Amino acid sequence: MAASLAPRSRPFAVPRVRRLPAVPKPVVGEAFASWVDRVAGKLDAPPGHAARALGLECREGASSTRPLFFGVALTPASLSGLRDATGLASNELQRMQLARYSGTALDLTGLDLAREVSLTAVAAREWMMLTSSRACPHCLAEGPVWPLWWRLGIAAVCPAHRCLLIDVCPACGVRLRRGNERVPRGLLTRPPLPEPGECVNRPPGGPKGRAGLCRQPLAALSATAVPDALVDLQRRALTVANGSPARLAGESVSGAEWFAALRLLTAITRLAAGDHDLANLPGFAAEAFRQDQQRRASRPRGGGGSQLGAMPATAAQALVALALADRVLDASSEGEGAYQLGPWTQRLTAQRRVAGRSDPLRHLLRPPALERLITTVSPRTSRVAGALKAVESPVLELRHIPHLADRGDYRALIAVHLPGTAEVSGRRLTALALGRLAGADSWAEAAAVLGMDSRKAARVANTLVQRIADPDAFWAAVRRAAERMRERRLADYAARRTALADLREVPHRDLVPVFHPLGRDVTWQRQRHAAAWVWQHFTSGDVREAPAYALGWEDGTSTESIREGWRRFHTRLPAPAAAALTTWGMTRLAQKGTA
Fold it and tell me: What is the mean pLDDT of the chain?
């Protein structure tokens, strides 16, 4: 999880450093923080003092030091100081940074070493642990070296000891290597020094000084055994992360594309995987997946950790991500990959139809090789429109279709096919469907020919059609609605919309005989509402789009106030007044040459 980078202290200029008499040689694959700790042990100094002696560019706090971009990348000043202090080559120092995995497991696009704040967005997006690490107790029992890959979001299993990595110290409840919970990754600057292999996290609320440090020996922790088949998944992922050739469903891909596919597949399985998909996983892994799903369901509005593309929060969740995604990634061919992916995409489509939501994966990167598979196995977007091919010749013309289908027709025939849909939205989709029935080749063409607001039309066409469970029955209902329109006598709604397009208000003189006998004054607001009533009555359109409201009101009345005024006018309009407005509207249409 990305650390907060609020600048409570300022970085200092790196002074000229002296060559240290001796420093430990970095172990191949070692994390930078691990090496700095070993340097501190060699110097018999707190890690924060060691960081300054190494020439790192840092932020200074009251009791800790925090090097800039610590463990992620080296600023030019830090790299220069390190070379002067240690004599180590630049590439040897940079191999200990997470930036080593840029272009495979990580995408550090947007990271600007001149702007520390740029790390916030990158760390939140990427599958890396900026302020913590996972660990294998058996490895730590053999030596104090922490591998760099333990800080990747895919870190799940120790290949050497075939055990699940540990995320949290059981003694203090803080993620490993977190340090001070209030100042994550702050390096201690005050003695006495912790013993090698101790947790040394400082949980919130604890005492100050040495007494507040967690002294749990990490090598003494127990670890859960993992089956060999899952250990092999970790090995393969690390091989790709280290730059080896990768394959996706039998096709050669880059490491970046492979990891992008892993992340997208993880998002898909978070939404679509079920208990049967977990059947071959260890119980602890299946339970971790279920708990994550429950947590996401309880937080539908999200949050960093609940985003579909978020890094697995634990080693167990990372293991499930690798195991489920591997069914597609390691498929021998595109056909096998499609076979494995198909059930998940079908469940996703079914979920969208029930909820009427847009694609929840639309913000995630879609690598080309995986996108082709998804396109192959996803239910066709023309599922509903495609069923229209069986419909015979149209029973009405496009000019006979209003923007909102008749309320009675919608409730009697269509509403059952659009569960959970607001009536106005459902009537708009029905009007578009009538347009398709009348010959429009697409939803967009139907909206354009009907003169409907393109954004509103696209919204209902893209979303509401997902709720239609039986396309054939839906189109049969739409056809019946068209027949009912013919039985009632067709109206030329296109001509009516044109005739009333400039109806901003009903003249004062025409409303006086309507409202004065009812004891009501004729205000300019009532003139506007009356015009909106006439427009809606004869065009069967959405009153919010009536010319009387479309341009707003000159006195600055808010949209909310206008709509509330309409609601009162509409619901309180006496029958005699409604009849009079209907007569007035018919006269107006006749004057415009429209029936």
Answer: 87
